[in-house]
Amino acid sequence: MPDEKGTVTKMARKPLYKTTETEMIRRIESGDWPVGMRLPNEFGLAAEFGVSQGTMRRALITLEGMGLLDRKPGRGTLVADPAAKPAPPVATPPARLLDGAGQPPRFTLHRARASTRGATPEEADLFGAARLSTLERTLRRDGIRAALDEITLPEALIPALPEDAAIDLADLLAAAGLAPATLTESLSATITSMTDSVALSCDRYTALLVLTRTAHDAEGRAIARQTLRMIGDGLTYGA
User: Fold this and answer.
1) R_g over Cα of the chain
2) What gap in Å lies between CA 111 and CA 67, rounded to an integer?
């Protein structure tokens, strides 16, 4: 559209497959597509959304990878319940989270806020502590805001987390003189809230990968947890 000087500016368009994914996620999140609902076949969905079968196939594969759809031969495509089949915690291997080049993604700090607060009932049960130190950060990848990170641990272990602490949980704990006996990971999927969308400068209902890391001491007690919510474009998770 022309600006005040009459110059025509081209506005970037969101890729069609991303628009399709976003609308499908919105329908699942809102309950328009409830868990267990059988969706039309690929051809029918493509016609409903006004896209090609190739575009619809790409969207279906993405949502299946997020655990939002269950596609079985002979059964069709069903809306799945991601919470019903959480990824089992596993010992953290190196470089499980990979970018499009097959390398661990490199995150840099955009904004951080450290504080202390009372534990929620779930956190008190996990850590056995009433007070927590927390670190909330917005992270960049390739110069673009791409992840929301939260570290929580008992205040008695680290009274104040430094805002420039290492992004990797193991490195952060090592810098504080803490050596966990085990470090486990689990993966789930969600979409951005309005607050998340503002923080990440992205569309509402953008798909996020949620990587949760939990550190335990030799007695099996949780000593720290990291929740990393990432825009999933170009990221994979696996052995």
Assistant:
1) 20
2) 30
Amino acid 216 reads: H
Using a 10 angstrom Cβ sphere, with 0-12 exposed, 13-18 middle and 19 or more buried, the burial of residue 56 is buried
Q: How far apart are CA 225 and CA 216, in angstroms?
A: 9
User: Could you tell me which of 192, 172, 170, 162 has the C-alpha nearest to residue 26?
Assistant: 192
Amino acid present at 59: A
Report the distance separating Cα 186 and Cα 89, nearest Å: 5
Say if CB 158 and CB 132 are below 8 A apart.
no
Backbone angles phi, psi at 60, to 5 degrees: -65, -40
**Which tokens belong to 59?**
């969207």
pTM: 0.63
Place of tokens 């969706």: 39
Residue located via tokens 């939002």: 68
Burial (CB count within 10 angstroms: exposed 0-12, middle 13-18, buried 19+), residue 78: middle
Question: Quick one: tokens of 209?
Answer: 């990968």
pLDDT in tens, the chain (239 residues): 444 444 444 444 567 778 888 899 999 989 999 998 999 988 899 999 998 888 888 888 888 878 888 877 667 889 988 766 555 444 444 446 777 787 888 999 999 999 999 999 999 999 999 999 999 999 999 999 999 999 999 999 999 999 999 999 999 999 999 999 999 888 888 899 999 999 999 998 898 989 999 999 888 889 999 999 999 887 877 65
